[in-house]
Amino acid sequence: MKLNKYTLVAIAAAAFGLQSCKKDFLDKQPFNQATADVAFTTAAGAEKLMSGVYGGMYNDYHIWDYMINGDVTADNAYAGGDNPANIQIDLFTTNATNGNVGRDWGGLYSNIKNANEVLENVPNIQDAALDAGGRRAQMIGEAKALRAYFYFHLVRLWGAVPLVLKSPTSLEEMQKPRSTVDQVYAQIIKDLEEALPDVRTTAPNKGFITKGVVNALLAKVYASKPTPDWTKVNQYADAVIAGGYAPLSNFDHLFDGAHKNNSESIWEMQYDGWGGPTGRGNWMTSVIVGSGWKRFCTPTNDLVAAFDAEGDVIRKASSISFKNVSTEGWSDDYWSKSNYPFINKYRNDDLANSYIIRLADIKLLKAEALNELTATGWSAAKTIVDEIRLRVNLGGTPANSQAAMRLAIEKERRLELAFEGHRWFDLLRTNRAVAVMNAQRDGNGALLYNISNANLLFPIPQAERDRNPNL
Q: What pLDDT score was predicted for residue 443?
């Protein structure tokens, strides 16, 4: 068993503590940690290894930092709170000793280590039960898809990163250099396309890898490559749309806690309340909702203005709530405390799952693909955009050209998917991040940022650079 061979890329997660008023909510072992006595000899042991990959996702990155990286880095949220690492990310002053950067790198590589354990060991387990119903191939497909997903986050946050595809057995393998961005994307696509034929079509809940998840990831990956392949985006988006998913008629039902694993959900984190093995969704609720102390991830003036300019009262109400916190002892640079905004999508203690991918995301990606494939594709894209808008009682988009439709889709994705971790990555892949962020103003109209392309990626964590001179 080679669980201890990833020190260069995984041990950093333990070196960075949670800052400020964040609780030590990672003190529990993953609920389904593989055990050495059975992990490599039986079908039951293989299942424990597979569960370890999913269980490893209940870490800071996937339950919390995805929103810091996707929304606070972008124009959807201010850092809020008093966490210096979050504030650095918000203000584009992040350096190589930032605690979030270190734990995210370590957390994602730990996830990759778990996936690699499945891929290295499950093919060799001599237990006929693994081949009943194709479960062995299914697990290998799930592990490949999950590894691809973890690398998808790494390459978008850091650019060129080391490709660790097996357990290191030598110092040379431990000190791998960074692969190019194109090489990382090629590996992501290889893993996903190899996984697609073998993963299941349906699962007990939306927390597992299915064909719908893999098709959705392929659509997102092909849209995010340095040179997008819009034909592939359209192909895989169509496969998702044909996969039996259906939008909820009521937008707020997506977030009310009573409609987990609904027909619109493609992949979502599964939480089970305080005390349960995956009881962390409510922790996120506690740090972004309510008063008493200054919460994290405060909605921006610009996002509120965007909802208001669109007359988008339904999505605004589902996404943001306002409270009078004038009697609280903290201050804020951006908002009046008499009408202070809080994220509302995760409002239900113990009941709030969080979406990784849902159907509206993929439909809007298809609209984007149609718009980019031909100069007149904006007309077909408009049908999809208008469908998304109709659910929240908005009229059709006025966009009537390819250029106008690009901005219309960008805006629609922002308002539809706010606080779900997508905005920053949308701005990166469309090369709009610098222009959009440099136009941001605070509540008094003052410009907030002056960034360049040099600010768009995280630095490699200093601890990793110290361990590995090839970084």
A: 82
- C-alpha–C-alpha distance, residues 177 and 322, integer Å: 48
Residue pair 136/123 in contact by the 8 Å Cβ criterion:
yes
Mean predicted confidence (pLDDT) in 93-117: 97
Task: State the Cα–Cα distance between residues 273 and 270, nearest whole angstrom.
Answer: 10
Rounded average pLDDT over 85-97: 97
N residues, the chain: 471
Q: Which of 238, 457, 213, 214 is nearest to 367 (CA)?
A: 238
Three-state SS for 132-154 is: HHHHHHHHHHHHHHHHHHHHHHH
Domain span at 248: 36-271+355-467
Asked if the structure places residue 4 within a domain, the reply is: no
At a CB cut-off of 8 Å and minimum separation 6, what does 292 contact?
A: 328
pTM of the model: 0.91
What digits encode the pLDDT tens for the residues 349-394? 655 789 999 999 999 999 999 999 999 999 999 999 999 999 999 9
125 belongs to a structural domain: yes
The tally of CA atoms less than 13 A away on the side-chain side of residue 430 is 21
The answer to whether 52 touches 140, Cβ cutoff 8 Å, is no
Residue 236's CATH number: 1.25.40.390
- Count up the domains in the chain and report the number: 1
pLDDT tens across 198-249, in order? 999 999 999 999 999 999 999 999 999 999 999 999 999 999 999 999 999 9
